């Protein structure tokens, strides 16, 4: 294989770059994939080199070729100045906060935020002297009304991963940039393939790589991408000061997942939309929350800003007892009951977000169930849910 120059590589399509990024067979004894390099200590040829740390890799926590390969692949789809990898998606979120904020700062966080991120803000960040205000995810340019003199950052997540509110990211970015306030986004749902966060001005773009990157429900990992070299310098400094190293096996598995990410999403996106449409027509279902479904909340923003959708959405059932919901979900044979998503397998998850929202009051009248569509045959999945609805009706 002849090596591509950087400009030649940059001109390739996203799918091609995902296949090529982070591997150089001449660096791995000719094998296609980069090796899993394990290591803490790096040994130097002589005293002089050691004293100035003259080496491609200086110590295990300072970088590792397997991690570099993953960061190169993530960077090529994020399109920013650089990516760091973290031991979980949650750590990717918390690292972005720790990079942006100092004692005395104020941060605005969407009320639809991933719940463990909210817990981090309410406890750890509070203890460090950072004040959090939650805002209505649909706020748009009115976010400016919440800016205080010490507001340093706005945290966005679109859509919310339980209730699927879309956010007007361009409006929020425009308001924030006027005041030199940073904007970060948890972009796990769309992935960089379907929402180009940096192009929209997002400064720090976060992925729970556990989801569609790793995609096989066997790895916890996260990434943070910085829009500019200056922002990356700060991110990299925080990452290295915290000693956030990822096991090379996990980096390897995530990279392996990413090679097939675009085909999986191309299969899962229409399956998710088809399932959402089928569910909308069911008599047991009150509402389907899936931004890519025409007529669903947030669809217009999704159509304007996003180029695709993943296969995670929520249904609101017509009012029914939790016992009936249990009868429906417990008997499913293809859908596991469990947290997380983005893997190859389908999942369901009952939830009630009313207890912890503070800026908005969700108006659900019936139970809410989040659904992730995996790579199974969709007719099999519909039959499984159809039998589930029969159990729900029988138990109501
Ligand atoms: C799962 C998830 C995370 C956290 O990822 P983990 O790897 O499970 O820690 C963060 N944000 C969103 C939106 C998620 O769905």
Automatic annotation (TrEMBL):
UniProt family annotation: Belongs to the trans-sulfuration enzymes family.
At the top of the EC hierarchy, this enzyme's class is lyase
Give the protein's recorded name: Cystathionine beta-lyase
**What's the cofactor?**
pyridoxal 5'-phosphate
* A Gene Ontology molecular function term of the record: pyridoxal phosphate binding
Q: Write down the Pfam families for this protein, in alphabetical order.
A: Cys_Met_Meta_PP
Origin, by domain of life? Bacteria
Instruction: Return the EC number.
Output: 4.4.1.8
Which keywords fit this entry according to its UniProt record? Answer: Lyase, Pyridoxal phosphate
Which PANTHER family does this UniProt record tie to the protein?
Answer: CYSTATHIONINE BETA-LYASE-RELATED
Catalytic reactions of this protein: L,L-cystathionine + H2O = L-homocysteine + pyruvate + NH4(+)
Q: N6-(pyridoxal phosphate)lysine (modified residue): where?
A: 211
- Swiss-Prot/TrEMBL GO biological process terms: L-cysteine catabolic process to pyruvate; transsulfuration
Q: InterPro entries per the record?
A: Cys/Met-Metab_PyrdxlP-dep_enz, Cys_b_lyase_bac, PyrdxlP-dep_Trfase, PyrdxlP-dep_Trfase_major, PyrdxlP-dep_Trfase_small
